[in-house]
């Protein structure tokens, strides 16, 4: 029964698509602007403070002429990145395994195509596998994943 409830919760938090095992992917049926605003707010509400923002799509567009037919073959309409950090978790990670400070800061990428914004998050537990910091990485991952699910619901008006 718990397995079915967990699967249902995942579906309620946005469409979860197939992605590599180390990547959390959520699809929001919403524009980049609506999704980005919701993700930014949800991450900060979860106390993962935004330390940097990048409009990767605009930066890549500057190379369209140089790259020719090789530019944006997937016809992505927007690519943005939000870089976040939580000092308390960074401290806990450093206490458990200083090498895993390589995870700080973390980033969430958003990619828009055809009215759907894909949210991508590299799972810290993949890197932390076998580390004394795995429990901290799991808590970080769970907290951010929940924030992203809430952001999808908000972006979609649910």
What does this structure look like?
This protein is of the alpha+beta class and 158 residues long. It has one domain: 2-Layer Sandwich (TATA-Binding Protein), CATH 3.30.310.70. The protein is built from seven helices and six strands, in the order αββαβααβαββαα. Helix 2 (32-45) packs across helix 7. The model is unreliable at 1-15 (pLDDT under 50).
User: What's the CATH class label?
Assistant: Alpha Beta
Number of domains: 1
Name the CATH superfamily assignment. TT1751-like domain
The biggest sheet, with number of strands, parallel, antiparallel or mixed sense and barrel status, is: 6 strands, antiparallel
What is the CATH third-level topology name? Answer: TATA-Binding Protein
Distance between the termini: 25 Å
Helix content: 40-55%
Low-confidence stretches: 1-15
Instruction: Report the structural category.
Output: alpha+beta
User: In one word, what is the shape?
Assistant: globular
Tally of extended strands? 6
Cα-based radius of gyration, to the nearest Å: 16 Å
- Counting DSSP H or I runs of 4 or more residues, the number of helices is 7
**Strand content bin:** 15-25%
